[in-house]
Amino acid sequence: MRASLIQIGVDQDEPVEARRARAASLVREQAAADLVVLPELWTVGAFAFDSFTAAAEPVRGPGARTAEAMSEAAREARVWLHAGSVVERATGESGEAVYYNTALVFSPDGELAATYRKIHRFGFDRGEATLMSAGAEPVAVPLPDTTLGLATCYDLRFPELFRALTDAGAQTLVVSAGWPERRAAHWSLLVRARAVENQAYVLACGTAGAHAGVPQAGRSVIVDPWGETLAEAEDAEEQVVAADLDPAYVAKVRADFPVLRDRVLR
């Protein structure tokens, strides 16, 4: 199973429509892959808080511009596509607009196979934490060769989410992110930790460039269930990180070193 992570560059001077078209083109170039992953909020920038409301869009129906472009790209490339996340505009119980940081997964037929609303919002008392609503449920997505567990950026700091995804059958954990350069060491450490403690592949895709003046870490990386790095971005520039995954290796690691069997607290 071939996985490709597209560490796309985000430049606020580039029109969003141009970046959508460019991202779709980059996805089509990965037609030899089985699974392609894009980073978090690549249309607007994860730290461009002031632009969130204006950039918001539905994930289905009229106005779902990013979903439409990514659906077409997945269908043309014939790949499973984790299209990163968008600022989703939804309707609340009282008819008011509510916003989520929502990841989109498309099948090779271009169907929207799953969405995941980010559970852990970053910013403490500002930014995403005050502008976005929180998702409620972990999401695992069955693919023909593996099951994906979905997480977004700040989620990486909460191991209980990843354990819930493992309990739901996930063998490959996908983290799309807009992770800042100043905490790059935490990113590298936490990605490997999530792989080792869950004995799963971790595909962690970040962005290049800067979001609203915040330099990005890049460092997109693929880690195997034993914690070994299979491929990693050379720097924080736009690039593709790719590796071959062996779905059977997850079962082998879990059988040979059955840590998960010895859990006491559940």
TrEMBL record:
Keywords: Hydrolase. CDD domains: nitrilase_5. InterPro entries: C-N_Hydrolase, C-N_Hydrolase_sf, UPF0012_CS. Gene3D superfamilies: Carbon-nitrogen hydrolase (3.60.110.10). Residues 1-247 form the CN hydrolase domain. GO terms for molecular function: hydrolase activity. It holds the Pfam family CN_hydrolase. PANTHER family: DEAMINATED GLUTATHIONE AMIDASE, NITRILASE-RELATED. Belongs to the carbon-nitrogen hydrolase superfamily. NIT1/NIT2 family. This is Carbon-nitrogen family hydrolase. It comes from Streptomyces glaucosporus.
